[in-house]
Amino acid sequence: MKRMDSLKSWFFVFPVIALGAVIVLPALAQPPAKGAPPAAPAPPPELGQLSFFAGDWSCKGKVEASPFGPAHVTQATVHIRRELGGFWYVGQYAETKTAENPHPMSFDFFEGYAAGAKAFIRDGFDAFGSHPHQTAPGWQQGRLVYVGESTGDGPATPARDTFTKKGDAALEHAGELQLNGKWALIDQETCTRVKK
């Protein structure tokens, strides 16, 4: 009698096991679902405010007399392009060597937007060993003002660079350093766009 009860149990259990196998085995045979790869980060939309600078520029200006040297006129070219996944505007500023300017300035810089700080940032590296790091809130009434510090072989010096739009293809730039507690104009120039 026990044997008969065992057989009856198997007749009941076996179909349940078989049904489970039919449901579970196909799921086990499928490779595990893979999540989509994370999307690449996108440049912040605020960078559009810097698109005005993109292109090639020709600049004429003047360096004021200062503890760094005598006054002299300058001529320079500037090339700015959007690079590194669209996150940075990368620029090169290069003055022309002349008899009046025997040690021309050259300067490479990066401009971008720090979303966490809600500020535009500008870092530069020049041919005299200085490294300015500055921030700006954005264009205000046609002016973009970067303020920060310039470091080199001496103490950090407060630095301010002001860019003023003069139409779609021209701008003025004024560079200042804080000397003896007061802002001093170091250089100024007018730049016109050669090509976008």
Describe the structure.
By secondary structure, the protein is mainly beta. It is built from one helix and ten strands. The chain has a ten-stranded antiparallel β-barrel. A hairpin with a 4-residue loop joins strand 8 and strand 9 (170-179). It is globular and about 65 Å long. The termini are far apart. The relative contact order is 0.14. Residues 1-28 have low confidence and may be disordered.
Short characterization:
The protein has one helix and ten strands, in the order αββββββββββ. The protein is mainly beta. It has a ten-stranded antiparallel beta barrel with strand order 1-2-3-4-5-6-7-8-9-10.
Continuous helix count? 1
Strand content: over 45%
Runs with pLDDT <50, length 5+?
1-28
Average pLDDT, to the nearest integer? 86
Class by SSE composition: mainly beta
Globular, elongated, flat, extended or rod-shaped: what is the shape?
A: globular
Please estimate the helix content.
10-25%
Largest sheet: 10 strands, antiparallel, barrel
Can you count the beta strands? 10
